[in-house]
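Final report, closing paragraph on structural work. Over the funding period we assembled a curated collection of sequence-structure pairs, and we close with a single example.
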Amino acid sequence: MPNILTRRREPFTFMLYLGMAGSCILFLFIFLVFVRKEILNQQIPLHLPVVFWWSTLSILLSSLSIEFAKHAFKREKFFTYRVSISLCFALSLLFLSFQFFGWQQLTSSGITMANSTSGSFIYILSGLHIVHTLVGIIGLTVVIRDAFSNLSYVDSFIYSVNAPNQLRLKLFSIYWHFLDALWLIIFLFLLYHAS
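Its predicted structure, as stored:
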């Protein structure tokens, strides 16, 4: 039986998990800074944009659509796969739109990074998540391009049994669920501290 420490691992999977671990540490550090400031200042009044509820719903639905896409891909239902992956793309753009509308709500309320500690944390946390989401959308664009370049059943089947293509979809779905979970944690953290 091979040793778990010496067993050969797929390098892209390892790099993805390493990157996600680094992101978790970054966000954890920001959470700790917020909590420390809150302890020192007793209270940081935090006003969460209402539209963040809609962005949360859109990213949850996008995560669900990527699961539908994965199952359709495995069952060789390529039309359903293309529809689901396209829906994920549309929902990811909707998520970004809601995030920017949230920023507009903050600025129209006079909350900026310059004049509000809580506003700074909202902008930083959501902004960093937007950067992570944009990276995910680049990956999603590659997946969609491949899905629509193989429109015939035979081409789609050949594409689906290719191990690197299966790995690409698997890694993308892991990353997308990570984005979903990360936003949910950020949202619940902000919601808990909201006034």
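Residues 49-193 form a domain with the Four Helix Bundle (Hemerythrin (Met), subunit A) fold (CATH 1.20.120.80). The chain has one domain: 49-193. We thank the funder for supporting this effort.
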